[in-house]
Amino acid sequence: MGLRRTLVAVIAVLTSLTLLTTGCAGSRLAHEREARRNHSGGTGGMIPQLNLPAEFDASVGGLVNYNPYAPQQLVKTWLYEPLMVQDSLSCGVTPWLATKYTWVGSNKLIFDIRQGVKWSDGSAFTPNDVVTTLNLMKKYPAMDVNGLWTSAFGAPATSVTAQGDQVIITFAGPAVSKFSSILGNLIVPAKIYGKVGDPTKYVDKKPVSTGPFLVGSYNGRRLELDRNPDYWQADKIKVQKLVLQGNYDANQAVQMLRNGDLDFYTGEIPNPIKTFVDPNPQLNHVWYAPNGSTVLAPNLTRKPFSDVRFREAMAYGVNKQQASLKATYGLMQVASQSGLTLPAKKDLLPPGYALNGGASTILAYDPAKANQLLDAAGYTKGPDGFRRNPDGSPIKLTFAVQAGFIDYQAVADEVVSNLRALGIDISVVASQPDSVDALKKTGDFDIMINYMAAGCDYVNGVGATLATAQIPTKTTILGNVERYSNPTVDQALKNLNGETDQAKVKDEVGVLVNTMMTQYPVVPLFYAPARAIYRTDKAAGWPSAEDPYCNPQDNARIWMTRLSAAK
Amino acid sequence: MKYFLRKVGFFVLTLWAVVTLNFFIPRLQPGDPAELMVQKLAGKNAQLNPAQVAAIRDMLGTPTGSLWSQYWQYLGQLAHGNFGVSYTYFPFGVMQVIGQAFWWTVILVTIVQVLSFGIGVLLGAFAAWKRNGRFDTAVTLVSTFVGTLQPFWIALLLIYGLGYGLGWFATSGGYEDSTPGFNWGFVYDAISHGFLPALTLMIVTPVGWVLGMRNTMVLNLGEDYVRLAKAKGLPDKVVALRYAARNALLPSVTGFALALGGVLGGTILVETVFDYPGLGRLMGEAVGYKDYPMLQALMLLTAVATLLANLVADLLYGVLDPRARRAQA
């Protein structure tokens, strides 16, 4: 039978091909892993290699661009550098390309530029590079990603000039709250970026940078960075080679981390203690630092959330502990109603709340108290068992949540079941994240989950959730999703914009805290994490709960200077 | 000539419809590309930075004016062969990005489709020849079962089994350590990475061909000319392949051409699961980022490929079926 013979032949060829490729691939991968294992440990206090995920989060490789002002760039952290690095947890400022900053009043900022820093082509880094970079942002607003020249969170800049070793930025008015975002600007070489027209359109294939690493090789997928021996603080950099590769989902990342193919990861992994730490607690570690708050944002323009007494009852009637357990596997602490992340910011609490590190601002789950508050405020139950507005109109609410955000959906389920237990008719409606974003703009929702930034300037952080100017518009999502408006708060934020004296800053932040504690514009549930999921077989000195010296997710520049070879 | 003009007219009309739908459908959904991009860069637990959104809007040149005037502008650009700049990969042009992904998908899909077609048609023909036998029952049953499975689910099984479990294959990406180009290291690397996506598709794709071929072949075997051929004493192999199978192949060839054209859609999930750097992954990403220029170009590419494939199928039909040739002449 010819037909049968052909069939058999085809199958035979396919099978042998399969075996051939599998055999080779298998042994190659195993071999590589073995080689890597032998290399780890390090010699002479140096770490030969660290593997991190790619910083480029799109899939098509081969398009080379190191321009820090392109929306997607191959390297975000290790080439170009900022003037100073601010840690969002402690708010400490570490000198970087600038050694010092000084506010003259609230509308003039002076940076002392570091001497002796070299670009990677050997030329000297000068204040002119800083001036050129910042002025390019004025000429090309597409480059001004931190709003230096716009009126976002403070007055716009009016000039940036060099004077000796100093760079002087003047503003049209009080602009203290712009400080953190100014530090976000990475300095590029004037002699290159100054000549390319619109810098955002420039394809930077051969970066000339000041950072701790230099581009070694890139094959469209695997990017190898080599230690820059002439880096201005080279003595602090112990990593010889960084390999940046891959965008991993949670499952892949866990596998890679467990195998030692990845040394550090900041993505979301469900239950990391169980899936990652428990298999090898000696080497595998997790630290979720409190970085902001996940809050319930009710629509304050609608009944019953327009009533502060209802919101107060809700703050006690929601089981935050349980919500954290379901959404973060209990890794995140219940958040303080003050809006500040505790204990990091406990020194900013006004005297009335400062006792025991602000313990009284963390509201315990107390459904009995919530019921009492609702009864007292006139939200009596109707014949159907559900509460009604004091004017007798029925309450029927929906909780808008982003479909696919598993942790948010878990929170929504918990909150809704808590509120139903209080006799409030509310149900969950999950829809596309885009649609929820659209609701933020139109304001056509009852209640949703929002993120409240902590940050180090409170105009940008807590202020973005409370300021009248930050109510979303028809076209732009802003922080004040719940649509809170209070002239006292707006005045405090305005004052903060012009305030550099820390004692006075504390007074103004006190106004924000008091508002949060008595007006309940939003109800913080638990802290939102900055994640560090890491191994200690090659490198030690990562930021951790025991040594929380920096935000692990946003301040890689800092921890890179603190890593040392594992013993 | 009239026939030719009608065909070209139809082609242009279809193309216009595709271009128009491409333009309007993505824009009917909620969401702003600039906000989306900032949110994705910052992560879910981050406040949207309005200054950054404004800058990105400025950068992408988010269009002003009515949707209608944007549409005319878009048509004008297309006429000049300008597909625009990708939002995700700014400042790279859409065609530059597609060029990077193009061959990955084309090579993978061509190999898979040709092999699937060959295997499927052979299996189907054989099953029909031995219809109601043990082989036929097995093939039909397995095909029907496998046909109900989702490719991405099979992909996940393969990743866990052959990738993580046995560690035989790389589970993500198109290559790893080698430098792309014509060298053995790279070819080998690409094959070992492409194997699981290919296998996934190979499990699912032949099913349609098997069942289709078996059914048409069974019909053909009942025809008089087959009985005549057998009566003439022709060998089984000749009757099966040159007579029955050749005739039964006709509908499959049209189907094959259409399948090649429409293949992009089918690979989105599989490429995404394997992080394979091809067009399907790119398309999934473009949807996620609301990268309108990229989406438009990819959809246009798909449409043109399908239309061209149709044309090729028409031509091939003439080669396989002399009757069609005569009718045209």
UniProtKB/TrEMBL annotation, chain A:
<dbReference type="InterPro" id="IPR039424">
    <property type="entry name" value="SBP_5"/>
</dbReference>
<keyword id="KW-0813">Transport</keyword>
<dbReference type="InterPro" id="IPR030678">
    <property type="entry name" value="Peptide/Ni-bd"/>
</dbReference>
<protein>
    <submittedName>
        <fullName>Peptide/nickel transport system substrate-binding protein</fullName>
    </submittedName>
</protein>
<dbReference type="GO" id="GO:0043190">
    <property type="term" value="C:ATP-binding cassette (ABC) transporter complex"/>
</dbReference>
<dbReference type="GO" id="GO:0015833">
    <property type="term" value="P:peptide transport"/>
</dbReference>
<keyword id="KW-0732">Signal</keyword>
<dbReference type="GO" id="GO:0042597">
    <property type="term" value="C:periplasmic space"/>
</dbReference>
<dbReference type="GO" id="GO:1904680">
    <property type="term" value="F:peptide transmembrane transporter activity"/>
</dbReference>
<dbReference type="Pfam" id="PF00496">
    <property type="entry name" value="SBP_bac_5"/>
</dbReference>
<feature type="domain" description="Solute-binding protein family 5">
    <location>
        <begin position="93"/>
        <end position="454"/>
    </location>
</feature>
<dbReference type="InterPro" id="IPR000914">
    <property type="entry name" value="SBP_5_dom"/>
</dbReference>
<comment type="similarity">
    <text>Belongs to the bacterial solute-binding protein 5 family.</text>
</comment>
TrEMBL record, chain B:
<dbReference type="InterPro" id="IPR035906">
    <property type="entry name" value="MetI-like_sf"/>
</dbReference>
<comment type="similarity">
    <text>Belongs to the binding-protein-dependent transport system permease family.</text>
</comment>
<dbReference type="GO" id="GO:0005886">
    <property type="term" value="C:plasma membrane"/>
</dbReference>
<keyword id="KW-0813">Transport</keyword>
<feature type="transmembrane region" description="Helical">
    <location>
        <begin position="294"/>
        <end position="320"/>
    </location>
</feature>
<keyword id="KW-0812">Transmembrane</keyword>
<keyword id="KW-0472">Membrane</keyword>
<feature type="transmembrane region" description="Helical">
    <location>
        <begin position="249"/>
        <end position="274"/>
    </location>
</feature>
<feature type="transmembrane region" description="Helical">
    <location>
        <begin position="7"/>
        <end position="25"/>
    </location>
</feature>
<feature type="domain" description="ABC transmembrane type-1">
    <location>
        <begin position="102"/>
        <end position="313"/>
    </location>
</feature>
<feature type="transmembrane region" description="Helical">
    <location>
        <begin position="141"/>
        <end position="170"/>
    </location>
</feature>
<protein>
    <submittedName>
        <fullName>Peptide/nickel transport system permease protein</fullName>
    </submittedName>
</protein>
<dbReference type="GO" id="GO:0055085">
    <property type="term" value="P:transmembrane transport"/>
</dbReference>
<feature type="transmembrane region" description="Helical">
    <location>
        <begin position="190"/>
        <end position="211"/>
    </location>
</feature>
<keyword id="KW-1133">Transmembrane helix</keyword>
<feature type="transmembrane region" description="Helical">
    <location>
        <begin position="101"/>
        <end position="129"/>
    </location>
</feature>
<dbReference type="InterPro" id="IPR000515">
    <property type="entry name" value="MetI-like"/>
</dbReference>
<dbReference type="Pfam" id="PF00528">
    <property type="entry name" value="BPD_transp_1"/>
</dbReference>
